[in-house]
Amino acid sequence: MIARELVAIPDYAEEVVRGLSARPKTLPCKLFYDERGSALFEEITRLPEYYLTRTEFEILQERSSEMVQASGSPISIVELGAGTATKTSTLLRAVARRQIRVKYFPVDISPSALAEAQERVRRDLPGAHVEPVIADFGNGFRFLSDVPGRKLVLYLGSSIGNFDLDDAASLLRKVRDRLSEGDALLLGTDMVKSPRVLVPAYDDAQGITAQFNKNILWRINRELSANFDLDAFHHIAEWNPRRSRMEIYLESERAQSVVLKLTGNTVKFAAGERIHTENSYKYTLEMVERMLCVAGFKLEKSWFDRRKWFGLHLARVGKVRNQIPLG
Q1: C-alpha span between 80 and 141 (Å, rounded)
Q2: How big is the chain by its Cα radius of gyration, in Å?
Q3: Of 70, 174, 179, 291, whose CB has the highest number of CB atoms within 10 Å?
Q4: Mean pLDDT, the chain, whole residue set
Q5: By percentage, how much of the chain surpasses pLDDT 90?
Q6: Do residue 150 and residue 299 come from a single domain?
Q7: Residue 3 covered by a domain
Q8: Where are the beta strands (DSSP E) in the chain?
Q9: Other CB atoms closer than 10 Å to residue 125's CB: what's the count?
């Protein structure tokens, strides 16, 4: 008798089943970032409609020296959600001008993105110490305690906007709990602006963002032996002014059933039923300051582009306040 090979069930499987069983249906946006998804996102950052990356990079190019000076030195740089570290070398060069050795700890869920980040930084700054950290923020920030000395934690790209307001403050509070007096945070936030600018940034003419959104289904097909028909779902990006966020969905074009073979679940969809895959909050400066305060940081300085479309905010470790709901 031939033994059947056991297939390991990914640790996120229960979260997927729970989300697809909910009303409305949801999927965790962290599942976008497998190797294929990370490559698609890099392509998105180069699209003409996607202003976020180039606008933030413009601020970094013009103001990195000010940011590093305001942060204090010597410091180690820890970047949360580093991806391929496309923008980070600009800041690291500013660090190199103020201290003898650059120590950089890129943190991401994607090993392939981290490998590219390590190669890029070592090429741009041959003397830099680069120590990649593979981590899922859902498991906490214990790795911050392992980084010696004074730290500047980067959380760029408006990644914080993917979290609901209370969850964002909670995440930053967990970061703060692993930091010491004198440590600082440099936080990137996309600012509130016209939907005429926002919507195309999440629904580009070439359809790359749609491919990125559908990659979450493609990954579930591959890793949970599911049978999602990607052509039976279409990408939707909507601005919700009441909640100050872009909302991203996949909408079923017909009534259908999807089998997740590896977990033994069947998911039914009505025509027009949606899966909520991502939020991207847009901030006012007041929202940013309040979120940081609740998380135990004190906002010291903000830098913006000329149109004030994007902001980078330096916050110092401060006294933790009682939790104040932000939603």
Answers
A1: 10
A2: 20
A3: 291
A4: 92
A5: 83
A6: yes
A7: no
A8: 25-26, 76-80, 103-108, 129-130, 133-134, 151-155, 184-190, 233-240, 245-252, 256-260, 265-269, 274-281, 297-304, 310-317
A9: 18
Say yes or no to pLDDT of 236 above 60: yes
**pLDDT band at residue 6, thresholds of 50, 70 and 90?**
low
Smallest CA-to-CA distance from 125 within 102, 99, 156, 154 is with: 102
CA distance 115 to 132: 8
**Rounded to whole angstroms, how far apart are CA atoms 66 and 99?**
15
What's the confidence (pLDDT) of residue 1?
Answer: 40
Residues whose CB falls within 8 Å of the CB of residue 64, separated by 6 or more in sequence, listed in order: 90, 91, 93, 94
Q: Is the dihedral angle over the CA atoms 285, 290, 291, 292 positive or is it negative? A: positive
Cα separation, 299 vs 303, whole angstroms: 12
Structure token pair of residue 37? 């998804």
DSSP string, 131-181: --EE--GGG--GGGGGS-S-EEEEE-TTGGGGS-HHHHHHHHHHHHHT--T
For the chain, the domain total comes to 2
Amino acid at 33: Y
Residues 76 and 176 reside in one and the same domain: yes
305: in domain: yes
Residue labelled with tokens 């990079």: 57
The per-residue pLDDT for 325 is 47
Q: What is the pLDDT of residue 73?
A: 82
The answer to whether residues 44 and 278 touch, using CB atoms and an 8 Å cutoff, is: no
- H or E element that contains 15: helix 13-21
Q: Please write the tens of the pLDDT for every residue from 28-44.
A: 998 998 889 989 998 99
Does the pLDDT at position 306 exceed 90?
A: yes
Q: Give a yes or no: residue 55 inside a domain.
A: yes
